Amino acid sequence: MTGDLYSGRGHIFALHLKETVPGVFREVPFLTGHVDFETGIKKAWELGIRRFVTEMWYIGNDDTWADDIRFACKSMRIILDRQ
User: Which helix (H) or strand (E) holds 3?
Assistant: First the structure.
């Protein structure tokens, strides 16, 4: 991912963050896939990117959706605060 970011240097102003696993690009719970958010965000920060949005999927988990959002927000804040 970081090579792709570097090739867009000077042209990227925001980063869309979402979880995936090989061959699956939807409905992957946050931090359960293979995306290295820490490395990607670090590289984005080095390139001057300061705007981020995290994509999450509601998959019918009526009981835990609010907890899922809080978990994702807290996890991303921890990563962003390290920059």
Answer: helix 2-7
What share of the chain has pLDDT > 90, as a percent?
52
Asked if 43 and 5 count as a contact pair (C-beta separation under 8 A), the reply is yes
- Full-model pTM: 0.80
SS3 74: helix
Cβ–Cβ under 8 Å, residues 61 and 68: yes
> Domain boundaries in the chain?
2-81
3 state DSSP class of 24: strand
- C-alpha triplet 28, 32, 38: angle, nearest 5°: 110
